[in-house]
Amino acid sequence: MGNTNMAKRTAVVTGAASPRGIGVAAARQFAAAGWAVVLVDRDLQGANAAAADINRTAGVQALAVPCDVTNEASVQQAAQRVRQEADLPTVGALANIAGVPEPATFSELSLEKWNRVLAVNLTGTFLMCKAFVPQMMAQRYGRIVNMSSITAFTGGGIFSKSAYAAAKAGIVGFTRGLARDLAPYAITANAVAPGVVDTDIRMGTTDEIEHSLSGAVPLGRQASAAEIAALFVWLCSENAGYITGTTQHINGGSYFG
Ligand SMILES: NC(=O)c1ccc[n+]([C@@H]2O[C@H](COP(=O)([O-])OP(=O)(O)OC[C@H]3O[C@@H](n4cnc5c(N)ncnc54)[C@H](O)[C@@H]3O)[C@@H](O)[C@H]2O)c1
Hints:
binds nicotinamide-adenine-dinucleotide; seven-stranded parallel sheet; Rossmann fold; single chain; alpha/beta; 8 helices
């Protein structure tokens, strides 16, 4: 964290290692908006590279913290690391973006696959909130934005199927409950439900699948990671303080809610 301007607050972003991913795009945009950022990911090398680049280009504090969001001890250690970092301002925003897809159809779906997709997407979001929300409650300020998906509403598409849909629908319900529980502390909680986004999450799928995913979108293209990231950052802005418990659809016209 060599080249730094002092930010007013810190944004913690999970899933922030994949160079073309939504988490890294969100960390960049939080930094551009003047937040200090903590990049949380199981891939420390990727998170470190993104943090160094953000520090160099945006000039705010950017810290990479290794963490498996499915593991409570790992998440608690990450929170402790952030609390101990004297240079970082208090955490004002938590963007739970880490996630994995699950393309198995019902017949192909094993209990192991089911547990894995729920653990990363849904339990990971819960564990991160358990670790970072108490400080927000104490300071009576906070913004939480959780990553859902259009799949929660459509039940699946060409690529992601029912287990992923269940995890992402769970996030919608959890976020609504959080919004109710945390409103007395002036903490907002919202979910973002993108359609298809041009990242490496479907690495290995065929061009044919990618074209049919884009072709099914009324606007005729996939979203960029930056377009989704911008919504996360805006939901954490001062101007978004009266929005809570919502799920924001961002899908190029594929689904209207
Ligand atoms: N790309 C899309 O089309 C799309 C659409 C809707 C929703 N989403 C959701 O957006 C989020 C980000 O997706 P992306 O496309 O940027 O994916 P990505 O694969 O580029 O990035 C996901 C990141 O999450 C991290 N991660 C995975 N498991 C983890 C764990 N257990 N602990 C910590 N980090 C972990 C990965 O290391 C990676 O950096 C996911 O939750 C995904 O489900 C993506």
